[in-house]
Write a structure and sequence with these properties.
Number of strands: 3
Strand order of the largest sheet: 1-2-3
Number of helices: 11
Helix content: 55-70%
CATH topology of the largest domain: Ribonuclease iii, N-terminal Endonuclease Domain, Chain A
């Protein structure tokens, strides 16, 4: 079972993120993967999945509110595209990496050995569950401010620079303007162990390879390949890409 020391470290971590009062029980649940509850025969509601459902809604509401106020002249379709990127697992994982969430995630011994805590999907889910737990038990304004502070640089980067985050959409729009054929993405190589793989992706259009890239997930590698293709085609200037 999770040690008292580990739990204290988790609660200290949440306080360091800027939350003074919160439910320790809910926060612990938000950081607990289903593999741990199954390993210890705990009830279903002791893992993060229900809080993840709530946190997903909270996240979308905060981002929707921000976009609606910040971009009053933007059409609904444009706002929807921006929001879909901003609340995606890829972006949540990026934020999770920045705030170093991995050490505090609670998983089973088997999942730990497989490197499950490093997975984009698990870290993104924990982020959403954390939002859910803090929405229920902490200051809602502090939570909104935390979400906005974490995502605004990324949102503004998407809007102003059309960077790597929406490169796939840009490339698809471009190819659809030429024909009905869409870009295709193919894994050309995989390297590394199962929990720490690097994927090499080639993006093609009309039978011709436009660009290649690598990433720690297939999705990331696809985005990078699409970005490289957009730069090659002149849809994005290469210097617009950020290193964050």
């Amino acid at each position: 079972m999770q040690s008292d020391c580990s739990e204290k470290n988790l609660y200290r971590y949440i306080k360091e993120l800027g939350f003074g009062k919160f439910s320790e029980e809910l926060v612990k649940t938000a950081f607990t993967h289903s593999s741990f509850t199954k390993e210890h025969n705990l009830e279903y509601d002791k893992c993060y999945e229900r809080l993840e459902f709530l946190g997903d809604a909270v996240l979308k509401m905060v981002v929707t509110d921000y976009l609606y106020e910040k971009y009053p002249d933007a059409h609904e379709g444009e706002l929807t595209k921006i929001r879909s990127i901003a609340v995606s697992d890829e972006i949540l994982y990026k934020v999770a990496q920045k705030i170093n969430i991995e050490p505090y995630i609670i998983v089973s011994e088997a999942e730990e050995k497989c490197g499950g805590k490093k997975l984009e999907s698990i870290q993104a889910c924990v982020m959403e569950a954390m939002f859910g737990a803090l929405y229920l038990s902490s200051d809602k304004k502090a939570l909104r401010d935390f979400i906005v502070k974490s995502l605004v640089p990324i949102i503004d980067d998407i809007v102003n620079n059309k960077t790597v985050y929406n490169a796939k959409a840009l490339l698809q729009e471009y190819t659809q303007s030429l024909s009905k054929e869409l870009p295709s993405y193919e894994v050309v190589a995989e390297k590394g162990k199962a929990h720490n793989k690097t994927f090499y992706i080639a993006v093609s259009y009309n039978g011709n390879i436009l660009a290649q890239a690598e990433g720690k997930t297939k999705k990331q590698a696809q985005q990078e390949a699409a970005y490289n293709a957009c730069v090659k085609l002149g849809l994005i200037k290469g210097e617009q890409k950020t290193n964050e």
